[in-house]
Amino acid sequence: MRTVRQVDAGDLSVGLWDEGPRDGPAVVLLHGFPYDIHAYEAVTDRLVERGCRVLVPFLRGYGSTRFLEADTLRSGEQAVLGADLRALMDALRIESAVLAGYDWGGRAACVVAATWPERCAGLVSCNGYNLLHPPAAMAPDEPANEARYWYQFYLHGERGRRGLEQHRQAMAKLLWQMWSPRWPFTEADFLRSAAAFDNPDFVEVVVHSYRHRYGLVPGDARFLELEAQLLTRPVIQVPTILLDGLADGVAVEPDTRSHARHFARLVRHERVDGVGHNFPQECPSVFAAAVMDLVEAAARE
Predict the structure, then answer these.
(1) Which three-class secondary structure string do you get for the chain?
(2) In the chain, what are the domains?
(3) What are the tens digits of pLDDT across the range 156-177?
């Protein structure tokens, strides 16, 4: 059984797995909503076997991660996710690491890769260029695409906030089923991750995330400059591997080849049939292989 350690970093006491040799090449694996670090169990095993130091943190609002101050805004905006990741690397004295993630975690990795490229030895990103662009968020899409985002619109109102508070496990399980229709996860698989949603800040962080990206609530004022930088849609300059699960039930564009223009050093783009939104847990072999390819490439530079 893995041990979760706590590390004070920035605004947070971060709970994380810290596995493998301390002098091995560093890898940070970042989960999405509504998932947790258990999405990376099999990936972590593969990378540790190859000599990597593997860090898998609970994002803010999940698991044992806690805010250090009661009055810190429970923001879920993209800038703070990236700042959290950078702060964790600072706290652990990791100058550079291969960053890999999906959903919220992929967004955090993309923020660091885009704005502090010296901290990112390589990037594995599911669903392509994960940076949000709130000024364009109110432009309507085709109804079939809008329907995929029902949970976001639900959380824009007080009914949705109360619904998530009262039914967080049921809502998360429904999203798992909708987003990964060909993944035969078990009840034990779900419950292992669902414990992370009991975090006292989970609802506030999630609601803020899905309101901020539509311009409905202000973000953390400390990160306005970083948010403004992200709005310029910066090209990511680090070596990147993109992964898409072609059975992803939430991705409006499950094949993100058009995102290539946002990556100056795109190594490859893999599209895998039958894989849904939770790519590392559904297809750990492909995910781990992508990470190792970037680890080995960084070692040759």
Answers:
(1) CCCCEEEEECCEEEEEEEECCCCCCEEEEECCCCCCHHHHHHHHHHHHHCCCEEEEECCCCCCCCEECCCCCCCCCCHHHHHHHHHHHHHHCCCCCEEEEECHHHHHHHHHHHHHCHHHEEEEEEECCCCCCCHHHCCCCCCHHHHHHCHHHHHCCCHHHHHHHHHCHHHHHHHHHHHHCCCCCCCHHHHHHHHHHHHCCCHHHHHHHHHHHCCCCCCCCHHHHHHHHHHCCCCCEEEEEEEEEECCCCCCCCCCCHHHHHHEEEEEEEEEECCCCCCHHHHCHHHHHHHHHHHHHHHHHC
(2) 5-300 (3.40.50.1820)
(3) 999 999 999 999 999 999 999 9
